[in-house]
User: Which sequence fits this backbone?
């Protein structure tokens, strides 16, 4: 196996990164580009042995990293951010080639956000509250103690950004990390390992292991030396991880699927509402937060649909490296089959495709809007994770909220309305970790992020991240208990 591959002119190491060095595996898996199906390279395929080595490296590196001062940890994380910014163009083109998301988005938004993730948590570390308080003359002192080696398992739809949402706070907290990237988009995680090493992150503090699902995942999530597990992905995989962690009571943070609603009321700015709806096709619909269930008040449904079709039909689908492209490919043939299966079954059950409803060449699926769908149907209740939206109508505010909350998920919701009081009433009743009103995907790292119901366990962001990655300790000291030993 070649140790490196060249992707769009960028050299990427295909081996694991364990204990500050590159480690090969006896077996490999093939990484392909969703843009044209071409083979990018053979990637080291880890298993229990690599998992054991990575956790051992993280365990060995933990005492020194945990004892490193917050100021020094913050300095190193800022150096990692500098490295990301220095190699921003390389990271952008490699990730676009590997997962098919728009190059312009990677250049202008995603990769700058990767750098920001490191800077934000470095700075937040330095202003964590350590305020003492009194109880009947006794002093309470709260401290944020690093928890230990942490396993982070990340998805393929925004590989580096979602990985660094976890890696940055875990490292800032003083933990060591074993990062397992998704097998369909592993390349930028390898580049991150190089960047971190160049920034001076000590050996073993960040380890990156590649492999297929449970082959390596079970060994990582059931390991007795792992102190935290954070996972972003599907509900079935989360159940498996939770089962592995349960035996050792390893704390979990889970950000899972969504089936989020977009509620459009008659008093909304209809052009804004249409823009919000069409925006749900971002990243070919492969966004966990996407409001895939559009709920429109009956009196404006016809006009909304007309404007939506006009705007959505103008979207350009094609090569994500082109500046004019709006929608790229689906990540993998298996995902394309899954999307197509959902749509075919929905149409067979009576749904109507207002636009789309079919594949295009290679791994491209046409942006689709389905109407005439029942609330209890599969297409309304289950996450598709592709460019497929449904449209339903409602007559009253009460009905809108009922339909919006009627799934097993609760990750996010979006509300379009011109009535401030209505917005307050509706958002108070929506079951969701994040609610956007007349906007979408505005994400501040100071805010909590996560899901309700089957959309997840726990929250990420700001102090919530440190609360997870730390063992929060309270030390109570009695007054006048000291002896003067001279």
Assistant:
């Amino acid at each position: 196996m070649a140790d490196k591959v060249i992707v769009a002119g960028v050299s990427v190491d295909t081996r694991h990164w364990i204990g500050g060095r590159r480690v090969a595996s006896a077996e490999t898996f093939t990484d392909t580009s969703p843009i044209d199906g071409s083979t990018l390279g053979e990637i080291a395929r880890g298993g229990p042995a690599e998992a054991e080595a990575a956790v051992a490296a993280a365990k060995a590196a933990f005492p020194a990293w945990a004892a490193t001062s917050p100021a020094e940890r913050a300095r190193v994380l800022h150096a990692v951010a500098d490295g990301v910014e220095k190699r921003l163009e390389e990271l952008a083109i490699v990730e676009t080639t590997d997962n098919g998301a728009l190059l312009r988005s990677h250049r202008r938004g995603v990769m700058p956000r990767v750098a920001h993730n490191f800077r934000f948590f470095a700075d937040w570390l330095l202003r964590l509250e350590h305020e003492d308080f009194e109880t009947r003359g006794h002093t309470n002192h709260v401290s944020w103690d690093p928890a230990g080696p942490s396993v982070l398992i990340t998805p393929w739809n925004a590989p580096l950004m979602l990985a660094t949402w976890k890696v940055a706070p875990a490292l800032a907290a003083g933990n060591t990390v074993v990062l397992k990237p998704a097998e369909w988009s592993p390349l930028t995680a390898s580049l991150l390992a190089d960047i971190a090493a160049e920034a001076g992150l000590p050996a073993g503090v960040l380890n990156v292991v590649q492999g297929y699902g449970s082959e390596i995942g079970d060994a990582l999530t059931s390991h007795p030396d792992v102190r935290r597990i954070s996972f972003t992905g599907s509900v079935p995989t989360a159940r498996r991880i939770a089962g592995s962690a349960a035996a050792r009571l390893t704390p979990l943070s889970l950000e899972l699927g969504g089936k989020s609603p977009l509620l459009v009321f008659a008093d909304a700015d209809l052009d804004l509402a249409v823009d919000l709806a069409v925006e749900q096709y971002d990243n070919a619909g492969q966004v966990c937060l996407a409001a895939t269930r559009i709920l429109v008040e009956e009196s404006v449904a016809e006009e909304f649909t007309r404007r939506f079709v006009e705007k959505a039909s103008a979207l350009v689908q094609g090569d994500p490296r082109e500046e004019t492209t709006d929608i790229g490919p689906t990540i993998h043939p298996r995902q394309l089959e899954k999307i197509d299966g959902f749509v075919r079954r929905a149409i067979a059950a009576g749904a109507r495709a207002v636009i789309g409803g079919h594949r295009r060449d290679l791994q491209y699926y046409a942006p689709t809007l389905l109407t005439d769908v029942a609330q209890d149907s599969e297409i309304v209740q289950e996450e598709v994770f592709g460019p497929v939206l449904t449209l339903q109508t409602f007559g009253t505010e009460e009905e809108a909220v009922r339909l919006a909350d009627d799934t097993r998920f609760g990750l996010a919701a979006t509300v379009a309305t011109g009535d401030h009081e209505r917005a307050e009433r509706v958002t108070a009743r929506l079951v969701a970790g994040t609610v956007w009103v007349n906007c979408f995907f505005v994400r501040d790292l100071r805010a909590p992020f996560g899901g309700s119901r089957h959309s997840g366990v726990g929250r990420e962001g700001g102090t919530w991240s440190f609360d997870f990655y730390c063992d929060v300790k309270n030390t109570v000291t009695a007054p006048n208990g000291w002896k003067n030993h001279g």
Notes: The chain has a mean pLDDT of 96. The chain is about 40% helix and 20% strand. The longest strand covers residues 138-146. The two ends are 68 Å apart (CA to CA).
